[in-house]
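Incident log, structure service

09:12 report received: a user says their structure output differs between two submissions of the same chain.
09:20 pulled the input from the user's history:
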Amino acid sequence: MPPNPPETEKKYRRIKPQAVRLMLYVVLLLAVVAVWRGMRPPVTAFDANSAAAQAPPAAPVAAPAALARAVPIVAQQASVASILEIIVGRNDTLDSIFRRAALNLSDLAAIRKLPGIRQSLDLLRPGDAIKVSHSDGDIQELTRKVSETQVMHVVREDAGFKVQMVSNPVEVRTRTATAHIDSSLFQAAEAAQISDNIALKLANVFAWDIDFVLDIREGDRFTAVYEQIYQDGKYLHDGEVLAAEFVNNGKTYRAVRFVSDSGNAGYYTPDGKAMRKAFIRAPVEFSRISSAFNPHRLHPILNTIRGHMGTDYAAPTGTPVHAAGDGRVSFAGTRGGYGNALIVTHGGNISTLYGHMSRFARNMHVGTHVQQGEVIGYVGMTGLATGPHLHYEFLVNGVHKNPQTVLLPGAEPLRAAELTRFRAATAPLIADLSPTVAPAGAPASASVAPPLGPLAPPTLPPPTVPPPASPPARGSGSKLSAQ
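09:34 re-ran on a clean worker, output below:
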């Protein structure tokens, strides 16, 4: 007779059937959960009436007769219509939204046929809000904001759909802020509650006179007069910089915004000279100058005395390179040690060269006309280069000039016929810039002017105190354009 199995083997044989049954139960439970989830309808928007129907009934409260008569009407409307609040997602279209929410596609087609609204209706951006009232998928009302000041309201009537554009005007307030620079422009702007967007615009206004990477000094100060846009009493965003003053290393620069008779807006000095020069000083947003203009430099690769006839701006590969001025591309291709290079010919026998680029911008070839600031290529390290950077040369009559110090020709000033209107329009702005000069180290200050009359809603009183500035949060990684 064989010996009895060990005690552990007996336990295993006794437990094994129970473990198998338990595993079968778990698998069955998971299958039931998967089927249940598959049967649930997708939640694409918030249904206000469904939520209200599921809420516990409120305790009865004695009410006046008028209120008692109104309650059944509201309940009746809720029983025949549902409200969806839809937030547009990435790659969403009205067709996909209607299908996802089980809305009537025939109604969408009928709404699109309404005169003059299809483009505004179909142009969706992520984050846009669409409010839909429907009965079993049939559209009763559709509302969406199509611009900052207009709301589209579509309503079903007996004869079909009717659309109405409802205006919601904005209020423009003028804010004046002053700050001193201790370390950087952005930190000073933050101390004065100025958004990054305004700080960048401020830098672009003075970009032809101040290098905001190399020239900023501790103790510099600036004042900005700019627009803030409000709607229904709520801050939306900042507008244009109307006037600005920047004191850099003891030298004062002033600029005011003016719209010429031709409708072009630009920045001018108080005496009507254009701030914009024919060329920008640095055609790329750079982190540092890796090699300056030096006709007697020792070449780092060839190890010979070979003049460095331009300026090298170190920047990550792929950083956009901008045209320094208006002109025409006279060369685009590979050029010896320059690698991928591009030459732009400008007026006045001036030409600029851009070397070591990783690639050119689309449709950039010989004969292409470019405008100042237009992207013409991207930083790389093609040719003889030890790291990613832009090699930039500035030539006058074929002679190389130092791009950092060459005197840049100015743009065309205002015509004499426009100067009278210019002085009248900009005098109040210039007066707002710096009536008194605060000592260095003084705290940042700001003031808010009353709303501009024509754009202010009639129900909103002029502000008497500076509103709590609530611009969007600034990211710490923002970078200043060094143009």
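09:41 both user submissions now match this output. Likely a transient worker issue. Closing.
09:42 reviewer note: The chain has a mean pLDDT of 79. Residues 263 and 480 are 29 Å apart (CA to CA).
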